[in-house]
Write a structure and sequence with these properties.
22% strand; alpha+beta; mitochondrion; 532 residues; tRNA processing; tRNA pseudouridine synthase Pus10
Length: 532
């Protein structure tokens, strides 16, 4: 085993005696050769046995012969005479074995006391095939993959105990070992598993891949091993709404960084004991990164909300703009779910005309991700043929970062509207003509009563850039407005009981109300216009 040197022999012997698997031994000996980790488990055991046998006659070897005490035993000087060394916060004395073959044989029969079997059973071909079967059955489109693994938090505690053990022995040899010198378990596991998954799936592993294969491990037998840290470092463990347990891996690592070595050794055995069982696999999941689709929609119905209209758990209307568009996208992309966003929104009784309103849909974990421009055009046509209440245009795939453009400077954008207005007192055409001359009219709009249940109470300054009136009869006229985005048009007309000042009613000295409202344009240059 060329990557191990003479100085590693005492560490190899020590870790084998305490129930550590050969791959974890390589990690603690700082072996960085990926090829060695990929060797078959039985071959690694034989390699270690041969390494110990070939070096047992060296002068600076560790002798594990009870009759002839070693010069470098794993103990602390102040522990001599102590009946309960672990209670006093020190390393336990390791039982000595004078036959290296016995040490290797014993280690091979046990679940590793550090990795809990991750670098043993879960590196074998049977497990790799199980993962690949899950991937293939999920039916995702992918050309590469990134592999992630979630480990039980108590594994970090066991790794700390093993490190303290090895650090003590290396100190006896006049050497040092930093926590950062150890090859990380996840890194070693990926060295082993990546080539096997790549061969089985037929695609390369790529850290930047948009397709993730994840495995979640648990070890119920040792779940409570990190609980002592909550007493030693209570500020590291804070309840979180989305976490089932406070003992997350990050919380445990934070506590391990904070706790003193002597306090750690008072509460946890060093070396860690050998468990009876391997880890459990809680789940094997496949996930494609989200795909984003953007476009513009027109809404022609005055009885259609933009998003599902649900009050106190009761649905008020059968459908929505969001659903009429997304149901087809979900079906074609085979996505798990979606998130809809748009440049503003219109009320249920307001139409959106002209070039339409920009929107974007995030499709979560899509199975299909590759679409040509022609296929997107066909999908657009499918949506348009499915309902006479909406139409979409410029449907296209976009990046996550591109969606930010839809929200950039939202309040600086302008929108044009057409409002049909009723007045209680009769008017002539001349009575409303002055509205056409008003430019950059500043409004103070207190949060409307109709949206106060979902918007904070505030006074917002908005601007009516231009107005153009169109006389209809003595009690009706149409008003075309160009306004700052975010202006409440209905409230500008009727005043909302004086919450919007000035308003059409106050300008005309009449009671005014709005009968119909249309959005005629949303002045945004996103998404790019396509040849539809």
């Amino acid at each position: 085993m060329s990557s191990l040197t003479e100085k590693d022999r005492p560490i190899v012997q020590l870790l084998l005696n305490t129930g550590t698997c050969p791959r974890c031994i390589l990690r603690f000996c700082r072996v960085g050769s990926q090829t060695l980790y990929r060797r078959a488990y039985k071959n690694l055991m034989k390699d270690l046995e041969e390494f110990l046998r070939n070096n047992q006659e060296k002068e600076d070897r560790v002798c594990f012969d009870v009759a002839d005490p070693p010069c470098k035993r794993i103990r602390l000087e102040h522990m001599e005479g102590s009946d309960d060394p672990n209670h006093n916060g020190a390393l336990q004395q390791i039982p000595l074995i004078n036959d290296e073959n016995t040490a290797v044989e014993n280690s091979s029969m046990k679940v590793c006391n550090v990795c809990l079997g991750i670098l043993q059973e879960f590196c074998e071909a049977d497990f790799v095939k199980k993962v690949c079967q899950k991937v293939n059955s999920a039916d995702h489109q992918f050309s590469s993959f990134v592999f992630s693994v979630s480990l039980p938090p108590q594994m970090s505690v066991r790794e700390r105990a093993a490190w303290l053990l090895v650090k003590q022995e290396m100190g006896n040899l006049g050497l040092s070992l930093s926590k950062d010198d150890i090859v990380q378990l996840k890194e070693a596991y990926k060295w082993i598993i990546h080539p096997q998954l790549s061969e089985e799936l037929g695609v390369p592993a790529d850290g930047k891949s948009l397709f993730e294969v994840s495995v979640v491990f648990a070890h119920p037998e040792t779940d409570e091993e990190c609980h002592f840290l909550a007493t030693a470092c209570p500020d590291c463990f804070k309840p979180a709404k989305n976490k089932q347990s406070v003992f997350t891996r990050m919380a445990v690592l934070k506590a391990l960084e904070k706790i003193k070595e002597e306090d750690f050794l008072k509460h946890f055995p060093c070396p860690p004991s050998s468990p009876k069982n391997f880890c459990d696999v809680l789940g094997i999941e496949c996930n494609n990164s989200a795909v984003f689709v953007a476009g513009r929609y027109n809404k022609y119905s005055r009885n259609l909300p933009q998003t599902p209209w649900i009050i106190d758990g009761e649905r008020k209307l059968d459908s929505s703009v969001e659903e009429l568009i997304s149901e087809h996208l979900i079906a074609e992309f085979k996505a798990d779910s979606f998130n809809f966003s748009s440049s503003g929104r219109e009320d249920v009784d307001v139409r959106t005309l002209g070039n339409g309103r920009p929107f974007a849909i995030e499709l979560v974990n899509p199975r299909r991700i590759h679409f040509t421009a022609e296929e997107m055009k066909g999908l657009q046509q499918t949506i348009n043929n499915s309902s006479d209440k909406i139409q979409v245009r410029d449907l296209q795939l976009v990046t996550r970062s591109a969606i930010c453009r839809m929200k950039e400077g939202e309040e600086e954008k302008t929108k044009t509207y057409s409002a049909l207005i009723w007045l209680d007192k009769a008017i002539q055409k001349e009575d409303i003509a002055f509205l056409d001359d008003i430019k950059e009219l500043k409004l103070d709009q207190k949060t409307p009563l109709r949206v106060l249940h979902r918007r904070p109470l505030a006074v917002r300054c908005r601007i009516i850039h231009t107005m153009k009136s169109e006389y209809i009869d003595r009690h009706h006229f149409r008003l075309h407005l160009k306004t700052q985005a975010g202006t409440y048009i209905k409230e500008f007309v009727h005043g909302d009981f004086g919450r919007t000042k000035p308003n059409i009613g106050s300008l005309l000295n009449r009671t005014a109300d709005i009968l119909e409202l249309d959005v005629e344009s949303v002045d945004a240059d996103w998404p790019p216009t396509l040849d539809n």
